[in-house]
Amino acid sequence: MDRIPFGPTYTEMLNPETIPPDIRQKALEVKETDELNPLNLFNITWKDEHNSVRKIVLPKELTRTRANIIVLLGKDFPSGSHKVGPAYATLIEGCVDGNILPGEHTILGPSTGNFGIGVAYICRLMGYEAVIIMPDNMSKERYDRIRRYGARLDLTPGTESDVILTLKRTYELKKDPKNRALAQFELMPNYRFHRYVTGNSAIEAVKGIGNGRIACFVSAPGSAGTLAAGDEIKKAFPEAKVVALEPYECSTLATGGRGQHRIEGIGDKMCTLIHNVLNTDFVALIHDEDAVRGLKIIQDGAEALAELGVPPEKTAALKGLFGVSGICNILGAIKMAHYLRLGPGDNVVTVATDGFDRYPSVLKDLERRCLEIETFVLKRWARDIFFNISEEHIYDFRDPEVKELLFRQKEKDWLPFGYTKDYLDSMRNPEFWEEEYAKVKYYDQKIKELREL
C-alpha cells in the first residue's frame, strides 16, 4: 500500500501532547496564519495549545440552575466546527483500509452543514476532490465556506430536516465507482471519534468542577455521532444520563414527527445507523424559535441580560461561542438540570458544535420576521427561554419496551437502504458497540505504520 496522507491517530486527537513535539509546534504555528496548511490536521482536538479542553462553565445568573452547565467549545477546531473530526476519521480509515485512494476517488459528503464543511476542508488538505450533498435551504455562510475550500455543492430540495433526500442522492452518486461517500449517518468512524475523543475530553473537562463527575450528557443528534460520547461517559460514570435533543417541530425519535424546523444540523427525521439507542435515556424537545432567539440574546442582548442580573463581563465572554444548535444544546442542558433535580455538585455537559460565524444570516432572518427586537423584548425572551424553561416534552426511554420504539424507527429508516434486519438486530447487543469501539487501537497502529512508509 502507498503511504497514506499524513495525519493524526485517535490518541493524538484526544491527547495532542502525544504528537511528536516538532509537528505539534508547527501545527500550532500555522493554525492562525495558514488555514489550508495540511499540518492543521494535527489541530483536530478539543484541546488548546496548553492541552486543556476548550470549554466554558455557563454563568448561573443565566442558567438559573443549581447544577453546573459545562459546554465543550467546537468553534476552534480547524474549519470552525468539531464535525471536522469525524470527517477526518472517516477519510483516514478509508485510506488505511485501501478503499479510498488519492487521485483516484472523489469524496461525497452528505450533510446539513458542518460535516459537509469539514469534508470539504479535509479533502482540500488531503488532496481529494469533494462533492457536498446538502439541502438547498441552509445558511449562506455554509455554502460560501464549502466553496471557499474548493468543493462542489450538489443541493437537494428541502431544509435541514430533509436529510433522507441527501442520502438518496448520495446513494445515486455512489453508483459511479470513482465516488466514495463519507457517510456520517452510517459509518462507524463517526461513532469512534466521538466516543473516544469527545467522550474522554468531556470526562477530563469536569475535573475540578463540582463533584468532578458527569450527571447528564446532552446533545442534539444530526448524525448522532456526538451522542456516542455518552457511551464513554457512562463507562466512567454509570449514573450519568444521556439525553438526545430534538426540535419540537421535528420530534422523530420522541413521537415519530417529521416537520420542518430552523435548527440547522439536527433533527434529521431519522434514527441514524450509528446511534446507539441502548444508551439513550431520555429524548427532550426544544422549540426551534427558542434556539434562534436564544442566540440573538447571547449575541446582542448584553444590556437586557445586565438588567436581569447577568454581569456584563460574563455575557461578553459568551459572545461568538455558539451557533443555533449550540443554544439548543444549552437549553436542553438547563431543562434536564431542572428535570433531574440536580444540585450544586452536579455537572451537566453538552457541546457547541460551532460558533456564531456561520449564523449572521439566521439572525437577519429573525429580525426580518419580528416587528420589534428592543431591549424590553430581549428581556422577555430571556426570562421565557432561559430562566423559566419548561420541563414539558421530556420522554423517558429507559424502559426496554419504550426503547423498542427507537429500534423500530431505525429499521424503518435503514432497511430501505439495503441493511439487513439481522445486522440491525445485532445493534441491540452491547457487544456490537464495544467491538466497533475496540477498532480505535487497530486504526491507531495502522495510521502510525502507514504514514511512516
UniProtKB/TrEMBL annotation:
The record's keywords, sorted A to Z, are:
Pyridoxal phosphate, Transferase
Give yes or no: UniProt keyword Transferase: yes
Task: Specify the domain of life of the species encoding this protein.
Answer: Bacteria
Q: Which GO terms describe its molecular function?
A: cysteine synthase activity
Q: Which residues form the Tryptophan synthase beta chain-like PALP domain?
A: 78-354
* Enzyme class, spelled out: transferase
Q: Which SUPFAM superfamilies match?
A: Tryptophan synthase beta subunit-like PLP-dependent enzymes
Q: What is this protein called?
A: Cysteine synthase CysK
This protein's species is Thermacetogenium phaeum (strain ATCC BAA-254 / DSM 26808 / PB)
Q: What is the lineage of its organism?
A: Bacteria, Bacillati, Bacillota, Clostridia, Thermoanaerobacterales
